[in-house]
Amino acid sequence: MRLEIASYQVKDVRFGAATRLRDGVLEIDADELRRLLLQDPALDDVTVALARPGESVRIIHVLDTVEPRARMSQPGTDFPGHLSPPLTVGEGRTHRLAGVAVMETAELPLSLGGLNVKEAIVDMSGPAAAFTPFASTLNVVLTFKVCPGLSYAEYDAAIRHAGLRAAVHLAEVTRDLPPHEVETFALGPSSPDLPRIVYTCLLCQEGDVHHDFVYGRTVDETPTLVHPNEFLDGAIVNGEHHIAAYLKPTFFHQNHPIIRELYRRHGHELTFAGVVLTKCLTWSNFDKQRSASFAAKLARLLGAQGVVISAGTGGHAVADLMLNCQEAARAGLKTALTCFEMAGDRGDEFGFVTYVPEADAVVSTGNMDELIDLPPVERVIGGTTIIDIGDYEGGGGAAALGALTTAMRRLYCCTSLVGPGLMTTRPV
Amino acid sequence: MGTLRIVHYLNQFFAGVGGEKHANVAPERRHGAAGPGVPMQKALGEAAEIVATVYCGDDYFNVNGEAAIARIVELIAAEAPAVVVTGPAFASGRYGMACAAVGQAVEERLGIPAVTAMATDNPAVELYRRSLCIIPTGESVATTGEIVERMARIALKRGRGEPLGRPDDEGYLSRGIRQNVIVPQPAAVRVVDLVLRKVRGEPYTTEIPLPDVDPLVPAPPLRDLKTATIALVTSGGVVPRGNPDRIEARRASRWSKFSIAGLDDLSSRDFECIHGGFDNELVAADPDRVLPVDVMRELEREGSIGRLHEYCYATVGAGGPIERARRFGRDISAELLAAGVQAVIMTAT
């Protein structure tokens, strides 16, 4: 499988009379984009706003974030399982607008039992900007108003499809333009002397607020193999909106930091032996053990000596992470993990709900309980007030324009589990 | 900058008064440095002076508690030091407790910074590490020279009000507080580095050290279920409607105890699920699905179990820390034992 990703670097984004890319400036015809997205009858309205790094802007109610992409070799195969038939991607040529992110926001004041959408904040400047990866992208923010009377699942699907559609629409402007850079991704020959490393990616499936998609379906209890290019080419789409800090938006599957790092070292430091996809938040200990043992076996079948395992989400998904580590270690594989910490707002509690002694090489993506003071901002996109359904995190109803002290849990992707961030914790 | 005034606290043995036979001596003060204070004064050089050594017998301290601390603090205060150094206590438990308690009292009551030193497994470490600056030592007194040099360096910084660097860099024990920091490499690069180091057999360091592993050992099985009193305990957040104990929806800081006397099952009119970490619609409709009073009553009627305990206990996990869960477990177990309960069915979500 050989995938060429052609990058078109974008320096700035602005509204214009036509959607086009000129001299590194992305111009967007907002009316045209709105008309395209509002073809979906579930959507009542959408507004398009722009947020640039350094601006005094706070984006709230963030759902998924997508990088503008268009598959060139086989038109009409973008985001398979969502916008196109669920057929394998990861080959051919795909164009990307580098430096741009399409961000979905909506106020969905729905409680599905205990699960509901939690507040997710991106500050484009100020102290939080250092922690949120999307403070450094040019963000095209879509704020949706949904039609009343539909189910959460229907809203979720409508918004997700609209975000993906907008991402393809914007990337289409590159079709006849020369790229700045073309990267090729293929698991080419490597030296047998190099250590073989497998990446085991935990995805989640619990309910409508808590799920990741693989070709349009949620992941099940039996782990499977995928080619890393499938991640990079739109096969994995995020539908998790639970806790903002540790999300893995579609953007980070398209630019998967761990997969890209394994590719970067493939053939000279290691042999990238493949990706195992497995589910976390399985419902029983039986299923957790079964999945973990199965995933370790698949890594062995790939000839792995080492396996990188990223946590999938929080809560008892940490038990899935730990069991995956334990089973891989029992299978004779060396393991290294990524996980966020919940060490309390003072940082004085042990940050995991459970652990195994084999978890002796863990990379922390940060303590999401630590408090941060957000200053007032000049402009808010996505809504007007901070949501907190069921008094889960406190501070609900606060004006989003104002100063806010919050746990970093609400900072979108600040402790993202797929490893884009520069945050960790240090003892003091 | 003038010479910094330091007071050094020691036990009777290190102050040169004598061993166990003299462990009853009351708090005393003498001019200048004594015992390990002598090499410490050398390390301090001109920058600071150990103006007095305050000492107390280990037994005296142990028996007199607060009265001993108050007197020691009084003796120290009279010297108006800029910083107080206690120990090193090495592995001695009683002496370690005294060094830590004096250090803490000086900081809290006099607002003067303190520095102490002891072995990492000294019992005082777990009790005081979160609030005190403790320099780790080995168990052997032979390392005194190196330890007092480090104590001198850190005491100078604290006495001058200079910020301390990170524990590993400065050589004091982490207070067990983890702080977010930005590092040069993203997590993805760090995790690939880690796995490669492990595969190559190179040394590697985890970013999240695990606590001492404390395996859970299940209690032995009941000898006779038919006569046993069994209680229901849950972390699933089923509580009387209205949540009278105000149990939080996540990481609850407390637990709720409520009577189920006379109830054959839990109706959604009287009970609710306030757990915020899972889709609790089904439990809201039938709270027995997390707290199975209905099934337990059946077993009770059939005679399969002796009796269902009249009180249930409920809290919410949802990411609650292990330490807190241990505390809840200890407290609830104590009540259940006192009430003559022989077994517990614990349900989670």
Provide a descriptive summary of the structure in words.
The complex is a heterodimer of chains A (428) and B (349). Chain A has 428 residues and is of the alpha/beta class. Helix content of chain A is 18%, strand content 33%. Chain A contains 7 helices and 28 strands. In chain A, strands 16, 17, 18, 19, 20, 21, 22, 23 and 24 form a 9-stranded mixed sheet that branches. Chain A has a 4-stranded mixed sheet with strand order 8-9-1-15. Chain A has a 4-stranded mixed sheet with strand order 5-14-10-7. The model of chain A has no long low-confidence stretch (mean pLDDT 94). Chain B has 349 residues and is an alpha/beta fold. Chain B has 2 domains: 167 residues, Rossmann fold (3-Layer(aba) Sandwich), CATH 3.40.50.2300; 123 residues, no CATH class. In chain B, 34% of the residues lie in helices and 19% in strands. Chain B contains 11 helices and 14 strands. In chain B, the strands form 3 sheets. Chain B has a 6-stranded mixed sheet with strand order 2-3-1-4-5-6, sandwiched between helices. Chain B is elongated and about 80 Å long. At the A-B interface, strand 16, helix 5, strand 22, strand 23 and strand 24 of A face strand 7, helix 8, helix 9 and helix 11 of B. Strand 28 of chain A pairs antiparallel with strand 7 of chain B, so a sheet runs across the interface.
Key terms:
heterodimer, A: 428 residues, alpha/beta, 9-stranded mixed sheet, 4-stranded mixed sheet, 7 helices, 28 strands, 18% helix, globular, B: 349 residues, Rossmann fold, 6-stranded mixed sheet, 5-stranded mixed sheet, 11 helices, 34% helix, 19% strand
